[in-house]
Amino acid sequence: TTYELNGRTAVVTGAASGIGTEIARTLARSGAGVALLSRRADRVQDLAGKIAADGGRALAVAADVTADLTEVVETVHAGLGRVDLLINNAGVMLANPFSEGRMDEWRRMIDTNLTGLLNVTRAFSADLVAAGRDGTADLINVSSVGAHLTFPNYAVYTATKAAVTHLSANLRTEFAALGIRVTNLEPGLVSTELGDHMDNPEVEAHLAAWRAEVPPLSPADIADVVGFAASRPKQVNLRQLMVMPTVQA
Ligand code: NDP
Predict the structure, then answer these.
(1) What is the pLDDT of residues 81-118, one digit of tens each?
(2) Burial profile 203-228: b = 16 or more Cβ within 10 angstroms, e = fewer
(3) pLDDT class for 176, splitting at 50, 70, 90?
(4) Which of 38, 55, 79, 216 could disulfide-link to 16, CB 3.0 to 4.6 Å?
(5) Cβ 244 under 6 angstroms from ligand 1
(6) What's this model's pTM, rounded to 2 decimal places?
(7) What keywords does the record list, in alphabetical order (predicted)?
């Protein structure tokens, strides 16, 4: 599906795989220039090449959302201009029983899913403010239905997502007055490599069993919703979107 996003300039974090890749492709197909931010340079370069081959505009930017982003912002400005559509999608999900005390995993999730999201938003907020003044600006945060669920082993992951959901709702009260729409997007199960970085075979087996029971959405299903939200008339803000596989309770 394509949407009307001609003249828009987007940044998609975590564009190297899964949901981020499909969001980038959908936005580019819809006419937006898209900066692809992820740590894996080869993956974003490959994606930029594919988008260009399909007639789209994309800029590969190897970047870590937890790092200083001064140069990243300069690179995006030089390559694509002012950003008016920021998709905070980069995230990690690591799960273990809390009693294992995996401070290393907790730190990675908090640093990426929450502090990283803040870092990127801070880096591009001047762009969003200027774009909001001139027309349309969007901040779309990829949280998770996990922000509302309770289940074992994922306490810290779900806490980071609950924080993102609450951040989106509160930031919206400031950004609305500046003409910046804030959309909080909460996917249910989606087929990606998100669960592939865990190191506990029991927790991994549980996730695999869950996925066998609930056929996950495809990343394109989520990208479709992002394209729709960003292309609404500027007075329309889809502020909270929970997108579930039909059979997931
Ligand atoms: P993936 O693992 O495929 O994508 C995550 C992306 O984040 C990767 O491309 C990775 O790229 C990037 N990333 C991770 N850490 C950093 C970092 N420090 N700096 C920059 N980029 C980073 O999984 P998904 O596509 O599923 O995940 C996308 C988002 O969707 C996440 O926020 C996730 O929590 C959320 N989500 C996913 C669900 C699912 O069922 N799959 C359900 C609900 C929410 P690289 O390694 O190159 O940096």
Answers:
(1) 999 999 999 999 999 999 999 999 999 999 999 999 99
(2) beebbeeeeeebebbbbebbbbbbbe
(3) very high
(4) 38
(5) no
(6) 0.98
(7) Oxidoreductase
Q: Is 32 helix (H, G, I), strand (E, B) or coil?
A: coil
Q: Is the CB of 183 under 6 A from ligand 1?
A: no
Residue (of 98, 26, 99, 112) closest to 63 by Cα position: 112
Residue 105 Cα, ligand 1 centroid: separation in angstroms? 15
Catalytic residue among 3, 106, 157, 175: 157
Give the distance (Å) from ligand 1 centre to CA of residue 6: 26
Q: Give the residue, by CA position, lying nearest to ligand 1 atom 44.
A: 144
Residue pLDDT, tens place only, 140-165: 999 999 999 999 999 999 999 999 99
Structure confidence at residue 243 (pLDDT): 98
**Token pair 């960003």 is at which residue?**
230
